């Protein structure tokens, strides 16, 4: 298991640059850039702009989100910010406030 | 599942990691780490940060002070430039260290060190502090109180984050000569 996990009790403040998958269960404030997938799990709080290849949101994200592939908002997710992705799904029960640009 | 935070090998974090729980670092960190659990710095990790945790195990490269309340352990392959502080300090064969090492009860050791240091420097520093306004930095401001007793606790509190920057107060005329004469 070589992927990155930010566990629930941990708060990271700063710029996180990753070449691999990132799973966030804790709190992240700042900026997140990943070349691979980012998974914000339920209970996680992210106050950061996220750039990833694909992003799955189950927790709270406040920030603009850019994905080269896809963005998925799960039930219970809350996203406040703009989304820039070529594919987007917003599940029933997800909360979203922002602009969407799919012309990537 | 994961109560351990893993900072993988392809990660570069510039910032701080705080919280409860264990952290395993395999990538690059620049900033500071202050966790309530155990920090493991794996082989191949590059940590440019002060690390404060309950327990620290190092197998990678660290530039920064390591403060492990229960202990600090450097395994083979560890390369540390910085101070080690903890209840027990272990340095395995093959580990490289450059810095101050302080094991045992941290508060007790600092009190002894601060007492000998403050006894020598209390008088001239106190006179200089009264002569001019204290410098606007936390460590010199606390030290410039001049009194032996508050200075001791202030030093102990500052020591936790690393040795305080050298305090060079401007001395009154003749004070430097007096100081030289005193220490001779």
Protein traits:
heterodimer, A: 104 residues, mainly beta, 13-stranded parallel β-sheet, 0% helix, 63% strand, globular, B: 184 residues, alpha/beta, 2 domains, 4 helices, elongated
Radius of gyration of chain B: 19 Å
Total DSSP E strands of chain B: 13
- Main beta-sheet annotation of chain A: 13 strands, parallel
Sheet-strand content of chain B, in percent, reads 35-45%
**Helical content band of chain A:** under 10%
Distance between the termini of chain A: 32 Å
- Spatial separation of the terminal alpha carbons of chain B: 63 Å
Oligomer, anyone? heterodimer
Please, how many helices of chain B? 4
Helical segment count of chain A: 0
**Low-confidence sequence ranges of chain A:** none
Provide the structure class of chain A: mainly beta
Which protein chains are joined by the largest interface, and how many residues does each one contribute? A-B, 27 and 27 residues
Count of discrete domains of chain B:
2
Please, how many domains of chain A?
1
What does this structure look like?
The complex is a heterodimer of chains A (about 100) and B (about 180). Chain A is mainly β and about 100 residues long. Helices cover about 0% and strands about 65% of the residues of chain A. Chain A is built from no helices and 13 strands. The model of chain A has no long low-confidence stretch (mean pLDDT about 95). Chain B has two domains: about 5-105, no CATH class; about 105-184, no CATH class. Chain B is built from four helices and 13 strands. Chain B is elongated and about 60 Å long. Classes of the chains: A mainly beta (about 100), B alpha/beta (about 180). The interface of A and B includes residues 7, 10, 12, 14 and 27 of A. Strand 2 (about 10-20) of chain A pairs antiparallel with strand 2 of chain B.
